[in-house]
Specification:
This protein is mainly α. It folds into two domains: about 110 residues, no CATH class; about 80 residues. About 90% of the residues lie in helices and about 0% in strands. It has seven helices and no strands. The longest helix is centred in the last third of the chain and has 43 residues.
Length: about 200
């Protein structure tokens, strides 16, 4: 079901306001877990989490999740004959932070689970794999292209194109290896979470 533009804006505004509350509560659960596991002070962990919270990606992801969740619920209500406005008001009450509804509780659990499974080291490892494979692929590809084109003597008279092609192919291979390493890390993480 399509919502009016005005209703889409109202849903976005509601999600923007409420997502911060859900995010803060999930972060507190994550904060308690971190304090218990590594024994750091609350100030240090709070500073780390405040940096994470201010990153627009996390906040936007939470807002988008809330928009999807709210839209689905409103569609269900409207299929049962409720007007768009009434569906919005009912969804707003059900999903408002600190409401004692099942839907609100489900959202809280979803965000808590996200933070329990969140590990910045995984994202850092993936980035390092990509960068390492890219540098390696570009270097090896460029060197092979340079040598295959005849080296320094023929470089300026047309050998540069072979070097460029070798560099591009090496870069593509580096991206491919980065994707494979990304998949391995994600699958390994999923396997750990099932145990």
């Amino acid at each position: 079901m399509n919502f009016s533009n005005e209703m889409k804006e109202r849903i976005k505004q509601f999600a923007k306001e409420q997502s911060q509350y859900y995010l803060e509560e999930a972060e507190m659960t994550y904060l308690e877990k971190l304090q218990h596991q590594i024994g750091q002070t609350k100030r240090k962990v709070t500073n780390k989490l405040s940096k994470l919270k201010t990153r627009s990606n996390v906040s936007i992801d939470v807002q988008n999740d809330l928009i999807l969740y709210m839209s689905d619920y409103m569609n269900d209500l409207m299929e049962n004959g409720i007007s768009e406005q009434e569906a919005f008001e009912r969804a707003k009450e059900e999903l408002k932070f600190q409401s004692e509804t099942t839907r609100s509780s489900d959202l809280k659990d979803k965000f808590v689970e996200y933070y329990e499974n969140f590990n910045p080291a995984d994202h850092e490892a993936i980035g390092l794999f990509y960068a390492g494979f890219m540098f390696f692929g570009i270097s090896v590809g460029g060197l092979i292209g340079f040598i295959a084109s005849g080296g320094r003597e023929l470089f300026l008279s047309g050998g540069w194109i072979d070097t460029l092609i070798g560099t591009a192919v090496g870069g593509i291979i580096g991206i491919g290896l980065g994707l494979i390493s990304n998949a391995i890390i994600v699958l390994k993480k999923k396997g750990e979470n099932k145990l």
